Amino acid sequence: MLAFILTRLGQSVLVMLAVSLISFIMFRYVGDPVASLVSQEASIADQEQLRERLGLNDPFYEQFFRFVWNAIQGNFGISYRLQTPVAELIMSRLPATIELAMTSALIALVFGIVLGVFTALNRKNPFAAGIMAFSLIGVSLPTFLIGIGLIYVFAVELQWLPSFGRGAVVDLGWWRTGFLTETGLRSIILPAITLSLFQLTLIMRLVRAEMLEVLRQDYIKFARARGLSKRAINFSHALKNTLVPVITIAGLQLGSIITGALITETVFQWPGIGSLFLSSVAVVDVPVMAAYLIFVGFVFVIINLIVDILYYVVDPRLRIGGTAKGH
Amino acid sequence: MTDITPSAPKGRIGKIIDSDVFYSYRTSPVAIIASIIATILVLGALFAPWIAPYDPFNPRTLNLMNGFTPPMSESFTGNFFLFGSDHQGRDVFSAILYGSRVSLMVGLSAIMFAMVLGVSLGLIAGYRGGLTDTVIMRIADVQLSFPSILIALLIFGVARGIIPPSQQESMAIFVLIFAIGLSDWAQFARTVRGTTMVEKQKDYVSAARILGVKPIFILIRHILPNVVGPVLVIATIGLALAIIAEATLSFLGVGVPPTQPSLGTLIRIGQQFLFSGEWWILFYPAVTLILLALSVNLLGDWLRDALNPRLR
């Protein structure tokens, strides 16, 4: 298992280097870093001097390694637009995105699994059929329309919930949370539902399909023959075995969570890093774009690593083989 | 003894009506409804200049007195608006016709671009094998695990940094097509590569090779026809995704320029008036987008089932 984790770690480092290379090329060659730093009156000699001082005349690999070394230390340069360090900007926006993503992941997992089990066990129930039909809409509607629809119903017509922003936040020193105030909690409901809907329907349909598959297996029949209670069969025997594919898909869908968060943050004017990235794209604020790319790559690598390790925890068959062949 | 009468030779149309695919179309109500809706929307977009009662993007014909007219009613100046008008007195119905034109044009071009790129790379990877194959498929893997909207946004941002500001407006649509197309090619490449690897082992390909046919002709004349079915399915479903991607990017404000609004831009504009009660500016473009994406998607699903020999 240790060997497996070490190999995966090595691969992760390689992936991160590739992502850094792309960000670096973007950082270095899109727009002129010097032109964005000096005033228009600066003479060519001044610009050359600054170029030399910033090390922009050094060989490519030297600049790249300096970029990576700085990134490891959390230094991503200074935003062209806001003139503040990019790392600071990202850190101030990060809590909002993490709280939103976590809340929606929780909603998607809990409701996805519960509804999936429910629809699998009650296939003839008209209510379950209704849920299945509804889930088709969740898969096929674009995220931003779901968000707008929710705003229209719950914020404009019913006026129950706020439609934008994060509400009041409490500063915990290193983390500004919206979970501790009433407006904060009310503000997160609509964005979290919007972001979770796609995942929720996906997980639900998957759990349902897997449950139906597993319930046909011999060991379930045997458990029934032994006279175990329905609850024990359904939940401790059947549900457990549906979780491997759920983990895989939930892990693979991370990309859609990241874009979903970007869109959701825009619709609800949520002050997270997705909306920060979007406003940077609009004005070509390259340092922020590069840092966001590295951040997304990092999250990808970490989640994939966790998913791979979770396989071992959930599926004992993988542990017997020692070094498994991946998936 | 059974009487075998040779059936009369059929014309081209007769052959189509007799085919399996047409039979599966006739017996699938979903496919029929989806294709009717898609046809209406495509025709509306195609003939927008003749159908649209107003020219929504000619500032001279706009009258601010017509602003915020509700659907199915007349404005102060006596003009009739089927779907209402927006803040500038622009007819929402005409804007939708022109908007779906832009949406469809961008979606179709993007998917064509993705198809040509993906099919060529897939053919090359499958036929050459070895290092070429590894490199192309590794890039495709990375591409598939990375969200396509994010790739499109990055390409868009980079293009903005490279293209001089004076040309950005006119280049925006091409950048958009390039960005969406480039984020969708991997699906094509994967499918085509798989089929190519199977087909190139077969005797007819060896025969062609022994006869001295050039690889490029073998790929186009002999192997390409085998992948037409799956490629068509991926392209149809991909078209729906490309339309939604375009709408999303335009909604985020990085898509087509405001002088040529697509359905996504119209939704972005309409969103501003959601709170003041002018729901129609948002509602009708949104419904059009959903109908368009959904009907194309359902057609793709049907095509996949109809062309899949295992399900027959």
SS summary, helix count of chain B? 14
The CATH architecture of chain B is: Orthogonal Bundle
Average pLDDT score of chain A: 80
Distance between the termini of chain B: 31 Å
Total strand segments of chain A: 2
- Distance separating the two termini of chain A: 15 Å
Number of separate structural domains of chain A: 2
| CATH domain topology of the largest domain in chain A | MetI-like fold
Q: Name the overall outline of chain A.
A: globular
Tell me the structural class of chain B.
mainly alpha
Roughly what percent helix of chain A? over 70%
Structural class designation of chain A: mainly alpha
Q: What CATH first level of chain B would be assigned?
A: Mainly Alpha
Q: What is the CATH superfamily label of chain B?
A: MetI-like
Uncertain spans of chain A = 322-327
Number of strands of chain B: 2
Beta-strand portion of chain B reads: under 5%
Order of helices and strands of chain A: HHHHHHEEHHHHHHH
Low-confidence segments of chain B:
none
Supply Rg of chain B: 24 Å
Share in β-strands of chain A:
under 5%
Membrane topology (chain A): Multi-pass membrane protein
InterPro entries (chain A): BPD_transp_1_N (IPR045621), MetI-like (IPR000515), MetI-like_sf (IPR035906)
Subcellular location (chain A): Cell membrane
Transmembrane segments (chain A): 12-30, 100-121, 133-155, 188-207, 243-270, 290-314
Explained architecture:
The complex is a heterodimer of chains A (327) and B (312). Chain A is an all-alpha fold and 327 residues long. Chain A has two domains: 2-69, no CATH class; 90-282, MetI-like (MetI-like fold, Orthogonal Bundle). Helix content of chain A is 74%, strand content 1%. Chain A has a two-stranded antiparallel sheet. Chain A is globular. The two termini of chain A are 15 Å apart. Mean pLDDT of chain A is 80; it is low at 322-327. In chain B, helix 7 packs antiparallel against helix 8 (165-182). Chain B contains 14 helices and two strands. Chain B has helices at residues 12-18, 20-26, 29-46, 48-51, 92-128, 130-145, 148-162, 165-182, 185-199, 203-210, 215-223, 228-252, 263-271, 280-307; strands at residues 73-74, 80-81. A two-stranded antiparallel ribbon of chain B has the order 1-2. In chain B, 69% of the residues lie in helices and 1% in strands. The model of chain B has no long low-confidence stretch (mean pLDDT 81). In chain B, strand 1 and strand 2 (80-81) form a beta hairpin. With 312 residues, chain B is mainly alpha-helical. Chain B is globular. Chain B has a single domain (19-56, 82-311), classed as MetI-like (MetI-like fold), CATH 1.10.3720. At the A-B interface, helix 6, helix 10, helix 11 and helix 12 of A face helix 7, helix 12 and helix 14 of B. Chain A: InterPro entries: BPD_transp_1_N, MetI-like, MetI-like_sf. Chain A: One of its GO terms (biological process) is transmembrane transport. Chain A: The chain crosses the membrane at residues 12-30, 100-121, 133-155, 188-207, 243-270, 290-314. Chain A: It is a multi-pass membrane protein.
